[in-house]
Every structure is written in structure tokens, then in C-alpha cells.
Amino acid sequence: MTRLLARLLGRLPIGWLQLTHHKGRFATALAGVAFANVLVFVQLGMMGALTGSTLQPYGLFDADILISASDSNSLSEGGNVARVHMLQALSLPQVQSGTPVYISKVDWRIAENRIANLQLVGLPMEAIEFIAPALRPQLLHLSVADSALIDRKTRGGNEEFFNTLSPETPAIFEMNNQEVRLVGTLEMGAGFSADGNLIMSDQSVFRLSPSRSSSAPDHILLKVQEGASIEATVNVLQQILPNDTLKVRSFSQAGADEQSYQTSERPVGIIFGFGTLVGIMVGIVIVYQVLSTDVADHLKEYATFKAMGFNSAFFLSLIFEEAMILAIFGFFPGMFAASGIYALIGMKSGLPVGLTLSRAAMVFFGTLIACAISGAVATRRLAHADPADLF
Amino acid sequence: MTKSFAPIAANGLNHWFGEGETRKQALYDLNFEIERGSLTILMGPSGSGKTTLLTLMGCLREVQRGNLSLLNHELHGSDEALKISLRRRLGFIFQAHNLHESLTATQNVLMGLQVHENGSSHRGDVKQQEKAARHILSILGLEDRLDYLPAKLSGGQKQRVAIARALVSTPDIVFADEPTAALDKDTGLRVVELLKEMGRERGTTTVMVTHDNRILQMADRILTMDEGHLFEGAHT
């Protein structure tokens, strides 16, 4: 390693030799950097799970425009939309089709002592074109009253049980004092507001929730004519629909808005954001402590180097060499520990937590930058190395 | 030896510490020249100004008043870049060896080569540099301690490594502070012989602070500092 670094740096790798000289201290420093990395990884993982789970319900649909109540910040929140507005929208020549969507919550008793809170999504059977193409074949089974597709990633669910479900061998449960026939599965995953998802036809939803009215869906989905501009259609709809009670957005914009709302306005997103910041600060402080202690311990040697004619660039490169070594050697143990924690969180919570290459790269470069900042601050201590004191 | 410019020349050199009532004059109006290739021993009691003069000549302090020329460059008012470039042509031997604890004897000596401008024949070629470092360590009797860390060396061995680090780049001037204090008689004489040899063959000038009577007779010139004044010869 010394020879390799000597070749890379074109000089003796003093930073490497200095760090590895005190092996115990080096190991502690790396553990500190790894710990900071784990903190950042976990926070980012949870943030990723939040954004990922936020977008999951949007994956159910194939639509161009979403009309919601003006107070709606997410698919599962907000007031209802009068169905008549769908008819108004359909009067526009550029709008090809529309459908109401009904979203609510329902409890499913998985076991004697375990209840899963599911997000219930209902839409008319004739609106199959608004369902993501991959899910359309399963949706056909929902035409039988009280039939439902259950999310096989439901938190606390049993894989073997889900494998037994089919239209021929449905499992019958009671939800909201109503029989529900689970005739198949789809794969979505749990989120922060629900343990899983349940899909039914709108008629089955009304049987399950008698208080719901078909004239007041939660959202309206629209498709535009082929060749028509989604943005332009949204603009026209915003003109003709009451903008004090309704929110008209492209479907993709609605997803982006909800992501932004969940991560920057809801407490859970803010907490994860601050957690990430805390992790970065912990890393910076740990590396600064290691580097500044190292500089203080070697002031006499550095003063000797100054006397010999080494300039500031040399000392900067030396401190940065140490910072980069700590960053690189601390990153990998942190990443491996974090991937283990991700697996554990995913298994226990059903949240879509996973280590992505982009996140690993982001944390890696973030670690390099944080360590470089620590190194830059630590170099201030070099001013205390006065070669005149050596004689 | 051909007569050439004096590598060190002082004219009306003064230096003091503190200001106002706390000001203490350390050097009074020093005027001297030191000949190229010579071995000059600087003597004097503690607090006489030897160290202050050594640090001024070594570009480690600012010249406050008077002129001090080093290798034909005026130090009074000079910028840091010039001083750094001049220091690369100097060799320092400190009483406290100041070796880098995490570098082996050879690596410590290598540091002397990786900065010196006139060590350019070795620069960039690590194998050549290592060869040169090992060679000078062998001359100083450390051929069996090349890969030892300072913690595994005796005081004398550490001092010899520090001497090797200062000399490996064949500097123009060597400033040495009690370089033989930690050495036995034979090794001390060998070190001074080496400095004399470098003076004869390469024109290396040595200014040495020492109280070691064993080597006084080997000096080309002896200067004595007393309460900030400089005198020719050994004064007691």
C-alpha cells in the first residue's frame, strides 16, 4: 500500500504512514467515519423509502392528468372532488377519457393479534385503461362483487398465504363488517401511512364503505387525446374548473408534488433530512478531531519539514491525503453495515429500503467532501508549527 | 579553494524581542562574512544570541534591522517564497533530532531529498533516492538500521539519521546545533570529517553551534557570541 500510494502521490505517503503508525487510533478513526456513514446511509435510506413509497400508488395508474381537491397534498389525503367536474373536463375535445378514483383506509386482521391498515383503492371496472398495463389482467378478476387484490408486500403478510390466492381459491376475510374475497395479489409495498394496499372495483368499495358516494370521488384521472399537449390541457382545465376548490395537475407533476410535500413539509421527511445533516456533521467533527489531533501530535516534525523548505502546498496535500484515506477506508465498512441495516429495516417494516448505486456514490462523494472540509479546517493548526522554535 | 562570494554576510545586523518596555535586544550590530566551504564553530554561553543568529541565517526568522545576505540573496525584506526556496538549499541539524516517528530511518532521510532543489539528480526517481539515502546512512554506520523506526533507535542513532537527512541533498550551507552532543567520540569525529569533506569537495559551508571541545581544533574559524555581540576566536 505504501509503494502504491508513493507512486500515486509522487512522494512518500506520509499521511498514510502517520495514520497507520498508531493502529488503534486509526481503527477508532475509521470506526468513527464508518459510524457517520451509517447514520447518513440510514437517514437517506429512510428518505428514499419515504419518496419510494410515496410514488408506489402512482405506479398503479396510467393517466395524464389528476384532478384533486385543492387541499389534497397526497393521493390519500384531502377532500373529495365532485364527479360533475369529470364531465366538465370530458367536454373538452383534447380530453379523451376520465375516471373517478376512490381511496380510503381499511383494516385487515391478518392474525389474531395483528391488524394491517391498508390503503384501499377503488375504480370502475370499465376504466381498465387507467390501470398500469402490467396490472390489467389481474384487474379483470375484480368484476365479481367484493373481490380484491391484496398487496403481497403488505407489512406482516405471509408469502405462503399470498401464493395460495387465486380467483378459484380465494381467501375470505371480514373487513368493515363486510366479506372480502382476496382473489389475487399485486406487488407494491408498505408505506409510512399504510401497511399495504388493497384494490377493488368502485362498486365493491361502496359496499365496503356504505357512507361513500359515487358522486364524490377522491380524485379524477384523465387521459388526453393522442397528440394533445398535457400541459396545455392542464392550463385549459385550470381556466374552466373552479381553482379555489380544485387542483389540476399533470399526473407526473402530482407525483413530484407529493414527493416534495412528504420530504419537506411533513415531520417525518423533515426528521430524515435533519438526521442526514446530523450524520454529515458527526462525520466532519470526527474527521476534524482526528486530523487536528494528528497535526498537534506532529507539530515538531512539521516545523522540521517547514525548516527544510517544504511549502504550504505540501502540508495541504499531506492533510488532504489523510482526509481522503479516512474517507475511503471509513466509507466501505459504513456502506456494508448500512446495507445490513437496510435489509433488516426492509424485512421488519416492508418499506422499500435498499442500497442503490446512486446513493452509494452520493454518500461516497459526500464523505470525500466532508473529510476535505475537515482537512481544510485542520490545516489552520499548522500555523503553530514554527521552525524557529526548533533550535 | 577558489575565492568566491561569501555565502553568508551580515552588515549592521540587529535583532530584538518584544516591544516598548519589554523589548530585549538579542543581537547588536553584527558584521561578519563566512567563507564558502568553511567549517565555522559558533560558541557562547546560553542566552548569548547564538540561536537567534542561527535562525536568522537559516531564514527561519524575519530580519528586523541591518543586512543579512544568504547565498547572494538579501534576507531583509525578502518574501516568504524566497526564504522557502533558500531553505531548500540549506541543511539543518537540530539538537533534538526531530525525526518523523512514523517514517523509517531511510524514509526520514528521503524527505531531505524530496524537497531539495539541488537534489534534482535524485528527484522523481524513488529508487535512486532510496539508494542515496541508504548510502549516506551506511557512511554514518547505520547500514543495519535502515528500516528501523526512530522509536527503535538509540539517541545517537537518531542523531545520525538527522545528520544524514540534512546532508543527503548536499546542501550549500549546513546549520548544526550541537550535532555531536549525543554521539560517541569516534562517531562525532566521523560526522565532522564528513562535513569538512563536503566543504572541500562540494563547497558546503557549515556553521555549527557546539560546546564539544573534541572538535574545536577541526574548525576553520571560531566565533563567539556574548550578550548579543560577536567576537572572533574562542573567548571564555
Number of helices of chain B: 6
Strand content of chain B: 15-25%
The whole-number mean of residue pLDDT values of chain A reads: 89
Which of globular, elongated, flat, extended, rod-shaped describes the shape of chain A? Answer: elongated
Chain-wise SSE layout:
The complex is a heterodimer of chains A (391) and B (236).
Chain A: H1 2-9, H2 14-21, H3 23-55, E1 65-69, H4 84-90, E2 95-111, E3 114-123, H5 136-139, E4 147-151, H6 159-164, E5 171-175, E6 178-186, E7 196-201, H7 202-208, E8 219-224, H8 230-240, E9 246-250, H9 251-264, H10 267-297, H11 299-308, H12 312-349, H13 357-378
Parallel strand pairs in A: 3-7, 4-6
Antiparallel strand pairs in A: 1-8, 1-9, 2-3, 2-8, 4-7, 5-6
Helix pairs in contact in A: 2-12, 3-9, 3-10, 3-12, 3-13, 9-10, 10-13, 12-13
Chain B: E1 8-17, E2 24-34, E3 39-43, H1 50-57, E4 65-70, E5 73-74, H2 80-87, E6 90-93, H3 105-113, H4 126-139, H5 155-167, E7 173-177, H6 185-202, E8 205-209, E9 221-226, E10 229-232
Parallel strand pairs in B: 3-8, 3-9, 6-7, 7-8
Antiparallel strand pairs in B: 1-2, 1-4, 4-5, 9-10
Task: Compose a concise summary of this entry.
Chain A has 391 residues and is of the alpha+beta class. Chain A has helices at 2-9, 14-21, 23-55, 84-90, 136-139, 159-164, 202-208, 230-240, 251-264, 267-297, 299-308, 312-349, 357-378; strands spanning 65-69, 95-111, 114-123, 147-151, 171-175, 178-186, 196-201, 219-224, 246-250.
Give a structural overview.
The complex is a heterodimer of chains A (391) and B (236). By secondary structure, chain A is of the alpha+beta class. Chain A is built from 13 helices and 9 strands. Chain A has a 9-stranded mixed sheet. Chain B is an alpha/beta fold and 236 residues long. Chain B is 30% helix and 25% strand. In chain B, a hairpin with a 2-residue loop joins strand 9 and strand 10. In chain B, helix 3 packs across helix 4 and helix 3 runs parallel beside helix 5.
